[in-house]
Amino acid sequence: MMKRILKSMVAALLAVFARAVVRRYKPRIVLVTGSVGKTTTKDAVAAALSARFFVRKSEKNFNTEFGVPYAIFGITSDPLRNPLSWFGVVKRALALTLLPNHYPNMLVLEVGAERPGDLAKLVHIAKPDAVVVTRLPEIPVHVEAYESPEAVREEEFSPAYALAAASPLIVSSEDDYAITMAQRTQARILSYGTDSHATVRISDIGYHMSGSVVDGMAARVACGGKESLLAVKGSVGRTQILPAAAAIAVALAFDITIDEALEALEAFQPPAGRGRLFAGVHGTVVIDDSYNSSPAAVEEALDTLANFPASGRRIAILGDMLELGRYSVTEHERVGQIAARKADLVIPVGIRARAFLAEQRSSSEEPPPLAYDNAEAAAQALPSLLRDGDVLLIKGSQSVRMERVVASLLADKSDRARLVRQEQQWLRRQ
């Protein structure tokens, strides 16, 4: 109880300082919300806006009542891990509040909700000039903390209601929930996606090749009668193209041309653990999607695996999907049915993940399906089971620590530094 009270007091103090900084420097603020792809979208939006603005973005996925003030102050590591660093946070907040500073004129902030009311607190700290809603799926993550999936979607869309009339609201043209909810606002709606009526329309989505090797994604992007080529290097999946398309829509809302936005996006790479490509042991290809997991995200990742060029097997190594509450069993079973169609081999990691195999019944002539209780067990066993040409998709919720599986499969062990959760505080956790 005392720890919770102390945490609330610190969060309240951070909010006071953060609001003071925003009032003093008056940066334009873009909030990125939704259930899937927020961090990648935030990074892409910041890259596109850098063509014209001095931009600061949230580090990593700092999207809570602590993380949003950190982003406003320019703090890049979480002081909660080191109590002594709180002195630096207070010093930084006071300096920004009292002394002259060359402060960014554009903030791109990711905002996330784990329980009802979270986003209202964040909007009170940073009232948006524009809002990006990534995706509001049928069964969103964190649903266990809410009365219903509809309540989660309403919470995640809620920053849009704080927009002034005619301010830009950027939504996916393929998300019926977001499109319907956007009609309730007085915002200027811009959409992105494959729909023919999208403000920023993408088409011909496919793999970007370097010779005969896949090294990213490519698509055609059209808006305002102009069509160009969009490429995202280093990661694969349709979900890597959509954030870049959202970023172009945001850029247009702030009077940046598509050519300027595309040039700024040339250096953009999705963050660690989001569809990153690595050379694996024994001539395999690793698709590292280990940052986090949810039903909608796994479905997208499985589509990527099913379409990825492979001379060997397509193997889905899938960890538990957490925070689904009463939907956990049914969603694991449903996603397992999809995985059985999309992959040649499905390997669950975690107790909940065994439901991925609910539809698979081995006959007496077939070997029993592979399954592991945790990431450490999978990391020890899997390297010896792989063959040349196999393509491996690794995905799971954050607490399952599927990056440990990825690390065991890397052909070049120095690539481990490019994986998610390689900070010392994470590595020390069991």
Secondary-structure blueprint:
Blueprint: H1 2-25, E1 28-33, H2 38-49, E2 55-57, H3 67-73, H4 86-98, E3 106-110, H5 118-125, E4 130-133, H6 149-157, E5 168-172, H7 176-182, E6 188-193, E7 200-210, E8 213-223, E9 226-233, H8 238-253, H9 258-265, E10 276-280, E11 284-289, H10 295-307, E12 314-319, H11 328-342, E13 345-349, H12 375-381, E14 391-395, H13 403-409, H14 424-427
Parallel strand pairs: 1-3, 1-4, 2-3, 4-5, 5-6, 6-7, 11-14, 12-13, 12-14
Antiparallel strand pairs: 7-8, 8-9, 10-11
Return the structural class.
alpha/beta
Radius of gyration, in angstroms, nearest whole number: 22 Å
- Return the average pLDDT rounded to an integer: 93
How far apart, in Å, are the first and last alpha carbons? 26 Å
| Major pleated sheet | 9 strands, mixed
Shape: globular
- The counted number of beta strands is 14
- CATH homologous superfamily of the largest domain? Mur-like, catalytic domain
Name of the top-level CATH class of the largest domain: Alpha Beta
Number of alpha- plus pi-helical segments: 14
Low-pLDDT segments: none
**Proportion in helices:** 25-40%
Write a structural description.
It is built from 14 helices and 14 strands. It has 430 residues and is α/β, with parallel strands linked by helices. 35% of the residues lie in helices and 20% in strands. The protein is globular, with a radius of gyration of 22 Å. A hairpin with a 2-residue loop joins strand 8 (213-223) and strand 9 (226-233). The longest helix has 24 residues, at 2-25. Helix 1 packs parallel to helix 3 and helix 8 (238-253) crosses helix 9. The chain folds into 2 domains: 2-265, UDP-N-acetylmuramoyl-L-alanine:D-glutamate ligase; 276-425, Protein-Tyrosine Phosphatase, Chain A, CATH 3.90.190.20.
